[in-house]
Specification:
Structural class: alpha+beta
Largest sheet: 5 strands, parallel
CATH architecture of the largest domain: 7 Propeller
Distance between the termini: 45 Å
Mean pLDDT: 90
Strand order of the largest sheet: 2-3-4-1-5
CATH topology of the largest domain: Methylamine Dehydrogenase, Chain H
Radius of gyration: 25 Å
Low-confidence stretches: 1-7, 206-212
Number of domains: 3
Length: about 525
């Protein structure tokens, strides 16, 4: 018998309970919530749920038996559990309510196993989270909540299926585990500790809020800002890097050099980070779209917020450098800067707007006017531009390359094109990303490559490519919060997870990767 077979084997004495669980999973009319309890110190309920998660995680498992996430709740806070569940399901959520809202928008059947609710550090708030998730019609939840516990009594109001392995209550439930806390003021101790214990210590009593209580020199606020990334399995150096990128300028001045030293072995270097509340230089506001300046704006970044304001920032430190005139009452979905000083905006309706530079040639103006006229009839979903070419993606999966003399088109994706990028010289090289989880490379006028340049089971949120001293570099932001940097050598990409949802990325001429989010803007450079 192989080790894998032994792991999938059902613990003795639980055959009838396992059959009942599988019948519940297969019954479309059954309650969406199943409470499992009993077994006392033998932990029969936990062992049964572990078996269910293992057998349902197999690639060949039938659809009705598939398990999409297992999140142990022993010792967990509501915030830590929400981050872990979001990570397991491939989404990014900053707090429990946001997780519920995100999952409500995805109608796919999802089955989640949650052992140990009665032993959580925050059983009350976690029970509220379970109840909110249980209201989503496409979610099925298997929760360990023994009869006689407060969490069972609270969830019983939802009329769940109940599977009690010890109906006569012959055996007491084991006590909840006790986690030893590190020194929450010591960055080295925090980076090396159990991240969920740190999350519970920083979050409990504050409701996961960034304000109030002891901020531990700024460590707590940085942790709560980037927590979903910090709770992933990683080295202390990688955790220090994420914390450093989330640290505000009001933090204890000793923390930044301490975290930088701890992060030295990590593959990235933080050039600068501007987070909500920073004053010197000021946080530029939420970022929903980024572009690298060209021509008169070379050496600068263009950053658009959710209200349509477009700011110029110095790329070397994000200090303010002015504003770009933008269409009134239009939110930018994408930005592009041209060498003649023109700035292009794709608004939330998929229409193109342009702010032309004073030295712009008439050919550029004619090109952008022609593209704008086309998008007025057929809205776009993504935008990029370089020199004398404008790239537009659409919701059907095609990318259109508008030039001064011709137009090329390629069907590159299944579903909406979410991002496009172009490197203009010596010949245009286009990269596109889609809701289908693929990144494609294409040279206008040629057949697209049959194999994706990158592919993951998550939608592409943003991408950008540029010439750098190390060659062409492509940055891709994925829907699960991962940002990857690809080189032209075909090697493995370099990844970074900042923690919050990523809205935009850009690669500067010196090879830095700029990441835009709702509450932060940061610049990283590969360190090794």
């Amino acid at each position: 018998m192989t080790r894998a077979t032994r792991r999938r084997r059902l613990p003795a004495g639980l055959e009838a309970a396992a059959a009942a669980l599988l019948d519940w999973l297969a019954d479309p009319a059954a309650p969406r919530l199943c409470l499992v309890g009993g077994g006392g110190r033998r932990r029969s309920a936990a062992r049964l749920l572990d078996w269910l998660a293992r057998q349902g995680d197999r690639g060949g498992a039938a659809r009705e038996r598939a398990i999409h996430a297992r999140v142990p709740l022993e010792g967990q806070s509501a915030l830590g559990a929400a981050w872990l569940l979001a990570d397991r399901l491939g989404v990014v959520a900053r707090e429990p309510g946001e997780l519920v809202r995100i999952l409500a928008t995805d109608p796919r059947r999802t089955v989640v196993v949650l052992p140990g609710l009665h032993q959580a550090a925050e059983p009350g708030p976690l029970t509220e989270l379970v109840a909110a998730l249980g209201e989503l019609g496409h979610l099925r939840l298997v929760v360990e909540a023994p009869a006689g516990t407060d969490v069972h009594a609270s969830l019983a109001a939802l009329r769940p299926t109940v599977l009690d392995l010890d109906p006569e209550r012959r055996q007491p439930e084991p006590p909840a585990p006790v986690h030893e806390l590190p020194d929450l003021d010591d960055p080295a101790a925090v980076c090396a500790a159990d991240p969920f214990a740190v999350t519970a210590a920083y979050g409990i009593g504050h409701g996961g809020d960034d304000h109030g209580g002891d901020d531990h020199g700024g460590l707590r606020q940085a942790w709560l800002r980037a927590g979903q990334s910090l709770c992933r399995d990683q080295t202390p150096a990688d955790r220090a890097l994420v914390l450093l990128a989330a640290l505000g300028d009001g933090a204890d001045p000793r923390l930044r050099p301490a975290l930088a030293e701890l992060a030295a072995p990590a593959p990235w270097r933080v050039d600068w980070a501007r987070v909500r509340g920073d004053l010197t230089p000021p946080w530029p506001g939420p970022v929903v779209a980024l572009a690298v300046g060209a021509g008169p704006s070379a050496g600068r970044l263009l950053a658009a917020d959710q209200l349509g304001t477009v700011r110029l920032l110095n790329a070397e430190d994000a200090t303010p450098a002015g504003l770009v005139p933008a269409p009134p009452a239009r939110r930018a979905r994408a930005l592009a800067a041209l060498p003649d000083g023109s700035v292009l905006f794709l608004d939330e309706r998929g229409r193109l707007h342009a702010e032309h530079g004073t030295q712009g040639p008439s050919a550029t103006r004619r090109l952008t006017e022609a593209v704008a006229a086309t998008l007025a009839r057929h809205p776009g979903s993504a935008l990029a531009a370089a020199e004398d070419i404008v790239l537009v993606g659409d919701r059907m999966g095609s990318v259109h390359a508008f030039g001064l003399t011709d137009v090329h088109q390629a069907a590159l994706h299944s579903g909406r094109v979410t991002a496009v990028g172009v490197v203009g010289t010596p010949a245009p090289l286009v990269h596109s990303g889609g809701a289908d989880g693929t990144v494609r490379a294409w040279a206008p006028g040629r057949a697209p490559l049959a194999v994706p340049a990158a592919e993951r089971p998550f939608p592409v949120v943003a991408l950008h490519a540029a010439h750098t001293p190390a060659g062409v570099r492509l940055a891709v932001a994925w829907g699960d919060g991962l940002v990857e940097l690809y080189g032209s050598d075909g090697g493995a990409p370099l990844g970074f997870r900042p923690g919050p949802p990523v809205r935009a990325v850009a690669v500067t001429a010196d090879g830095a990767v700029v990441i835009g989010m709702d509450e932060a803007l940061l610049s990283l450079t590969p360190g090794h």
